[in-house]
Amino acid sequence: xQPIAMSCGEPAGIGPEIAVAAWNAVGADIPMVWIxxxxxxxxxxxxxxxxxxADAATATAFPVLTRDxxxxxxxxxxxxxxxxxxxxxxxxxxxxxxxxEASAICTAPIHKQALIDGAQFAYPGHTEYLAALAGRxxxxxxxxxxxxxxxxxxxxxxxxDVPEQLTAATLTDTILxxxxxxxxxxxxxxxxxxxxxxxxxxxxxxxxxxxEIEMITPTLDALRxxxxxxxxxxxxxxxxxxxxxxxxxxxxxxYHDQALIPIKTLDFSGGVNVTLGLPFVRTSPDHGTAFDxxxxxxxxxxxxxxxxRMAADMAxxxx
Length: 319
Known about the structure:
One of its GO terms (biological process) is pyridoxine biosynthetic process. Catalyzes the NAD(P)-dependent oxidation of 4-(phosphooxy)-L-threonine (HTP) into 2-amino-3-oxo-4-(phosphooxy)butyric acid which spontaneously decarboxylates to form 3-amino-2-oxopropyl phosphate (AHAP). Its cofactor is Zn(2+); Mg(2+); Co(2+). This protein is α/β, with parallel strands linked by helices. The chain has 2 domains: 1-138 and 276-319, 3-Layer(aba) Sandwich (Isopropylmalate Dehydrogenase), CATH 3.40.718.10; 147-266, Isopropylmalate Dehydrogenase (3-Layer(aba) Sandwich). Helices cover 36% and strands 17% of the residues. A 12-stranded mixed sheet has the order 3-4-2-1-5-12-11-6-7-10-8-9, with helices on both faces. A hairpin with a 4-residue loop joins strand 6 and strand 7 (149-152). The N and C termini lie close together (9 Å).
């Protein structure tokens, strides 16, 4: 397997230290290469400059494709001067996987405000930027762990905008992309999907909203008629206890928090952000930059390790 390309993320956050910790934990089994400014790594990190991604497989210290971000790093204090370098790190990782020099990409957390301030970053987050780099108009964000997989049909938009943005086309695309990824990337031959309603009690027959009656149920019925194994629309408050989770392989939710609150409650440290619908594998730890603990050496690398393991498994499933 070719190495996994890891973008550096926000230098002032915990990204550099969890990247090194993850390599120390699994680098012997999962080759990876970090793209960033080595001066931003934790003090006393043993790192090795590599010329190509392939060289990372034989590295004896933390392997780095070196970049100069033009300014030193202060833990906990984002510097907009780093913005161009952070964005380029993501683009470089994508270029490596598109050329076949990397098997997948794993992205460290970014700080969107610093990217906007320093480089007028025009995307709501990683997911949308990666879609643009890949030339894909429809991608899906999945949060996955050993306990649960969830997919929000709408992502980084205000809650007030969800009913307008949640269309039959959006829901259908989300389900089709998720279904295909479960088969291709997770090895599930016959995926079972559970779909939440938008409103409390899935609308309760129209007493608490009409989206379920007017759009969600007809959309699911059309897909069921094509042979998809789909349950729903279901009341979201009863979808995530153990017996319910055993009945599906992924839950499709209607908006960001409806999906992310359950998985972050069940497995905050082990959750992985996966972008589905891309022509390459992309994973990321399911947490932010954690400026408050950056540089203290207390950051938990569990999610980064899980993201690397999942990227490797998904890349292997595609071969």
